[in-house]
Amino acid sequence: MYYGLYLRELLNFSWKNRGIQEVFTRYYKTNFWGSPESLSGRGSSTASTEILRPKLTELLKRRNIRSIFDVPCGDYNWMKLLEREGVSYIGADVVAEMITENSRKYGDSNTEFLVADITKGPLPKVDLVLTRDCLVHLAYKDITEAVRQIKASGSTYLLTTSFANWPKNLDIKTGHWRPINLSLPPFNFPEPIEMVFEASEDKGGALKDKSLNLYGIKDL
Question: What are the tens digits of pLDDT across the range 63-86?
Fold first, then answer.
């Protein structure tokens, strides 16, 4: 069992009673995740998403997705490489400085960035809400609120990170990190429509079961 890897990470955090925006802005300004390529962390690197990107493109085509709301979008490092012809994109994050920089570098008629907190509405109505590596950083109460806001948006699909082999979920303070298995309590999500496995090499390859699970939002 590789739980010890994550327990050590959790114990290293010193943030207490911090708001979501304050926590993740500090992470951005200090390059907390330590990636030489992306301020959003190693999981947002080109190499880490090499297998995922073509799979995601195929899902967009297969499900006739024409609009995406990606939250958190981070620094848009890997998403800028995604083939999404004919698909409009809205990227959102709580870090205002990062959104300003993304808009300057990448904004166009088909690509928009905005400051938004997934736990607070309203969220835009789209075909696909993408929350990769999002809920894993949130406390249970914030996950509950995020799901409520996603459902209230009237969007069609949710594509979100889950770990199929993770045996038991753990509550944390928002800003920390742990794997979650959305099929288990307290989430009890329905069977996913699709599972897109990332073949992640993060944490020394201990996260091979990491996937993006597709759900119909009306079923949550």
Answer: 999 999 999 999 999 999 999 999
Q: What CATH number is given for 3-219 in this structure?
A: 3.40.50.150
Residue 72 near residue 94 (C-beta atoms within 8 A): yes
Asked whether the beta carbons of 33 and 132 are under 8 A apart, the reply is no
**Taking the domains of the chain in order of start, what are their residue ranges?**
3-219
Instruction: Name which of 210, 192, 191 is nearest 202 in CA terms.
Output: 210
